[in-house]
Design brief:
Length: 655
């Protein structure tokens, strides 16, 4: 290899090194797909922007889809779960592949069969929008009764013919947002170098069994003459979602006990790619943005190597609820090692005290290969959000630092609608009203006691996608719920914060809901840990210490006893433009104040942290007026402290 060589992966130029440092060049190239591939030179003078969908060889597991939005409020790299297992059966069929989803045995159709597992390769993407498509509902007439919202969404906004055509099912549209399905068209000229190269491509037209079917085929061929030409003769690929997160379906007794409510992996895909509603909305934005710039939006589907049914498995049934104790004073690190794999669980104390351990662990030699943080998966994979909130806590700080170092970030928290789905599916007698009551109570007790309950209810409605007024509390309704469930009157002035803390063996109803919610998070994080160890050798988790306590027994069963320590000593840290010095304490004002100097930033904790970007030795010039009127804190000097000096607040400066 010579300097200036263009490294080509899957037929695309990812990197052009200025000089030959082979390992560094390859590392930079291999990280490119995770960062999004927008605005690349295509094969025919066009410009291509590409998402990457990685599916496990064992299609009983979910994969990931990554893409980048260039601008706007959702700018950044996004990563979310995706399914591509195709048509499934609970009974064995000739040629079908056996897998397990949890304890259930499932068989899925191989990729060379109609509606089989998603075929690796490159696909062009188009939003199935009524502005561009004539869209026809494929549901039976009786199934469309009461589906006015769905019919309105697929209706042409302006009369007149459309250049494209698609048939859709109403269950591809979620009521949680206005996301629409996405057409995936096999990009026959773009397969060179991808896993789609060499797959047989042929035309296989179906034989319509009715006049309606014949009319639909005629419309489809008029809009796209080569529509029925594809790999193995397959066609009709799409990225879509479903309605399993919708609160109405969750509360419908007709769907009680369905495995789709319990596990995303059970959802049907019929040869397409399936994502959750929030992810589909972001993919719609990606496709629209790139098309608006004259670019060709694509997705490359890859099948990851690896044998089915092998690796680490997390068993949520072994978890315990947090009981108020810790095996060591947070922040601490629990290091697990097994079979050449290392998991470091930073059991954090929320706030600046955990920033230094985070920085030390991420700058370790060798560094972690993936970081799991206490953020939802949409926010954790949106770099703009991470940068905006990096001062808000150790998980945001960890995500930002990992991005700077090129380390993948996974968010362990559930999205709002997923929280409802997981809490309700536990079958412990909780209802949607109980979850709403818990959320309103938790919000009021988290520093917003003077907030109007009606405003918090409106916030719940927006965040969790609950729009039915009959499902929402009024203020008297919330107080009635609290009195009935917790056995006393609600008082925002005297109600303690620990009424929403998850604790073992509690008699307080609101704590039981909190415990159920915490259990769902810990189960998800445990699954991500197992997935991370199956893919990488070194995994770092940055989560509150209570979560480590809850997951502890299951982690020990999977990995053995951990080693507990304080996450290394500052003296072991490589030279960095930051120090581990910090002052924490009280200033005589209402709140505890702490100052942390990390990576050239000064953090001031005022109930929430506020970031001040500073150079070493620069004055903070912090001014904070207490509501009690007892004075300001001004002109603090931030000084690097190799000799172990500390920072402190004084009314007239710092020592």
């Amino acid at each position: 290899m010579n300097p200036g060589t263009q490294y080509i992966i899957a037929g695309i130029k990812y990197c052009v090194p200025e000089f030959l440092v082979l390992l560094a060049a390859l590392a930079a190239c291999s990280s490119a797909p995770a960062q999004g591939l927008n605005g690349l030179a295509g094969l025919r003078g066009d410009t291509v922007s590409r998402a990457l969908a990685e599916l496990p060889k064992d299609r009983g597991r979910a994969g990931t889809i990554k893409f980048k939005i260039d601008s706007g409020p959702h700018a950044g790299v996004h990563r979310c779960e995706v399914l591509g297992r195709g048509l499934t059966s609970r009974e064995p069929k000739p040629g079908w592949v056996k897998t397990r989803i949890g304890r259930a045995v499932v068989y899925y159709a191989p990729m060379d069969m109609p509606d089989g597992a998603t075929i690796p390769g490159v696909y062009d993407l188009r939003n199935i929008s009524p502005r561009d498509y004539e869209i026809e509902a494929l549901d039976k007439a009786e199934e469309l009764a009461g589906a006015e919202d769905f019919l309105a969404r697929i209706k042409n906004p302006v009369p007149g013919p459309r250049p494209l055509y698609s048939g859709v099912f109403k269950h591809w549209y979620s009521r949680l947002n206005q996301a629409m399905p996405i057409d995936m068209i096999w990009a026959e000229g773009y397969q060179a170098g991808s896993q789609g190269e060499g797959r047989p491509v042929l035309e296989r037209r179906p034989e319509p069994s009715s006049a309606e079917g014949q009319a639909r085929m005629a419309k489809q061929l008029a809009a796209a003459p080569g529509y029925y030409r594809g790999p193995y003769g397959r066609s009709g690929f799409a990225i879509h979602t479903d309605q399993w997160e919708d609160p109405d379906r969750l509360a419908d007794p007709a769907y009680a006990g369905r495995p789709e409510l319990k596990d995303f992996r059970f959802r049907d895909t019929n040869g397409c790619l399936k994502v959750r509603p929030a992810c589909l909305a972001l993919l719609n934005e990606f496709v629209s943005e790139q098309a608006g710039q004259g670019r060709r939006a694509q997705v490359e589907v890859r099948e990851k190597s690896g044998r089915s049914g092998q690796g680490f498995h997390f068993q949520p049934r072994l978890m315990q609820e947090y009981d108020g104790g810790y095996p060591a004073a947070p922040p601490y690190c629990a290091t697990y090692q097994k079979g050449g794999k290392t998991l470091v669980f930073l059991a954090a104390e929320h706030g600046p005290a955990s920033f230094d351990p985070v920085a030390r662990l991420l700058h370790a030699v060798p560094p972690p290969q993936v970081v799991i943080v206490e953020m939802n998966h949409e926010h954790a994979n949106n770099q703009a959000v991470v940068d905006a909130w990096a001062h808000e806590g150790e998980s945001n700080f960890a995500a930002q630092t990992a991005y700077q170092l090129g380390i993948p970030v996974w968010g362990g928290e559930l999205m709002p609608a997923e929280q409802i789905a997981e809490v309700l599916r536990l079958g412990r007698g909780f209802t949607l009203k109980d979850f709403e009551g818990f959320y309103v109570l938790r919000t009021l007790l988290s520093g917003r006691r003077s907030e109007k309950i009606s405003r918090v209810v409106a916030e719940f409605s927006q965040e969790f996608g609950v729009s039915d007024p009959q499902q929402l509390f009024t203020e008297p309704g919330f107080r009635d719920w609290y009195r009935e469930k917790n056995g006393k009157e609600f008082s925002p002035e005297t109600c303690p914060r620990d009424e929403v803390w998850p604790q073992r063996g509690t008699a307080l109803f609101s704590r039981k809901v909190g415990a159920a919610r915490g259990w769902t998070t810990d189960a998800r994080v445990g699954g991500l840990i197992a997935d991370g160890l199956n893919r990488y050798d070194r995994v770092l988790v940055v989560y509150g210490a209570g979560h480590h306590v809850g997951q502890g027994p299951a982690l020990e069963r999977m990995l053995g006893k951990p080693r507990l320590d304080k996450c290394g000593e500052p003296s072991q840290m490589p030279p960095q433009p930051w120090t581990g010095c910090r002052y924490q304490g009280r200033t005589g004002f209402d709140d505890g104040i702490s100052l942390d100097f990390s990576c050239g930033r000064c953090y001031v904790h005022e109930g929430r942290m506020r970031e001040l970007r500073l150079a070493p030795g620069q004055e903070c010039s912090v001014s904070r007026q207490e509501r009690s009127g007892r004075g300001d804190i001004r002109d603090c000097l931030c000084v690097s402290c190799p000799a172990g000096q500390k920072y402190a607040f004084f009314e007239h400066g710092c020592d």
